[in-house]
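We both want to read discrete structure tokens more fluently, so let's practise on a single case. Would you supply a protein for us yourself, any chain you care to pick? Would you write everything just below, so we can both look at the same thing?
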Amino acid sequence: MKSNILTKQSIMDFALAIIAYVAVARAWLAFPYLEYSPLFYYFNQAMNYLCILVGSLLVLKCGVKFTKERLRLTILLVVYPFFCFFYTVNGENMVPALFSLLSCLIFVFLPKNYQIKVFDIFYKMVLYTSAISCVLYVLYSVGINIGFKIVPYYSILHSQQATADYVKFFIFAIYKSSFELRLCGIFNEPGGLGTICALLLIVRYEYMKKYEKIIMLITILFTFSLAGFILIFVFYAFRMVRKNPKNIIFIFVFVVVFLILPYIDFGNERLNMFFDRISITKTGLAGMNRTKKWFDESYDTFMHTNDKWFGRKEGYTFPNDHGGNLSYKTFIVEYGIIGFGLWLFLWINNALKLSKKNKDALLLIIFFVISLYQRPRILTGLYGFVLLFGGIKWLNAKAELSKNKT
């Protein structure tokens, strides 16, 4: 009897692990393309189908029950597929949008304890792969070659002009250019890894073991991710001020020193380039560079047209598209101020209702919204649902557990 229970639990955990893996993969892995590895490409394709199959069976087994919460989340998750199916220029994203819709529906209709489990597995996958990534980064940095390969960076995979590469080991990546060496881990960009680790650290901070915090902080450090650094700095600053309002003086001094650093020559190109990214320019911090000059110019022109209200449809690109348009502005161009604003409102409204006024959950919502400035694509798939809504439910469960103990 006990053996049967363990077997059923193992099968359940395996099914939830598949859903968690797909959530991680939707945060954009480094090497999911055929050109990098046919084996890994087909593995990820199989996991996508397994997620839908196993997840659907799991939902049916648990019973499909409609609640106000699930109805609200279902309304939210159909927004992006609606854009792709009906409000689109060429419909290129229809198949990914359909997978996104189905995988998110599965997550929404899972029982709460399973949703929390998926979030927990998601976190552990990021934590342990980040730990391995840090070791690989150190090994490569000190010149110990354990089988590293140099392959093209994903954005120039089919380009003849190679300006950056990946240092590849299995599914792990390090971004390498003339003067930069930044950790990507299993993800396609250093900033992606830095942002994910920062958000997960913020969610679980009060309940993390010391070694987990160290792994996350070192990972963020090795990514040289400005977004990751800012999220963590603001988070720790908030904690310090909440603990003692007088600490705002030390935070102010730290900010002043930090802004002076770009004007210091450290005698190290990597450090100099990183601190250059926090220098103040006419458009803000130099490192907030998710859009290029050509896009900003086209965007400014666009914002003086009537299209700014409802956008130019999903998949639209400016005629002089040269890449470098990966910010919230892209969504405004596609869906307009009203379309993107409504979409964002639905996310925030659902999150606030789920938070039940839990202060840690409210903090997560704030930082999640801040992260959208540079990485709005989190709104398009399972990754965002698991991180935000799964994270909120995880925090509520922890708060409830603490309350019951007292």
User: Anything to note?
Assistant: The radius of gyration is 22 Å. The mean pLDDT is 87. Strands lie at 149-152, 165-169, 172-176, 181-185, 280-281, 284-285. The first strand starts at residue 149 and ends at 152.
